[in-house]
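User: My instructor asked us to take a sequence, write out its structure as tokens, and then describe one feature of it. I'm not sure where to start. Here is the sequence I was given:
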Amino acid sequence: MKKILLFFLLIGLISCEGPEPRKPVKVNSGSFFKESVERNKKLLAYEEQLIQDIIQKDSLHTYQSTPDGSWYYYDLKNEVATYTPQTDDLVRFTYMLTTLNNDTIYNEEEIGFQSYKVDKQELFPGLRNSLKLLKESEKATFLFPSSLGYGYLGDKNKIDVNVPLKATVTIITIEPKKNNNSE
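Assistant: Let's start with the prediction itself. The structure tokens for your sequence are:
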């Protein structure tokens, strides 16, 4: 009887070691991500070169660069207005999208008038940033690399994967955010 009890006690102590963690079967080196980063850098450099070629060939317009990596020129500039849209302002605008070769993707009639609460609604990155640069009654044409457009997903309709875009944007009105502290 003592031998059986000692046997079970010994088995109990041996089984209390705790679980051993499993070793990974395959170790990822991160090479997929490194390759993806390199591929995206090359794509961006290529698209920026396309845009620079367009700018150099266009002697009619004076282009300005933006901090986020797009370029634009004014079709219609408002020399009187000074206010640009700020967070929570309501902006009413129209725009059209073309390829860099001026093939129409969406015209203004297809898109229609848009109302946008600045920084509170979803727009593609280039358009979201562009609206903050224009004043009321201004119209400008922007050139976006695909990373500021619809990127590697496209819009799942007319814009394919990694398509750089040209957008002509017209701000109709800017309604500044109402300040609730004045009540």
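For the description part of your assignment, you could build on this observation: Residues 61-182 form a domain with the Chitinase A; domain 3 fold (CATH 3.10.50.40). Try explaining in your own words what that tells you about the chain.
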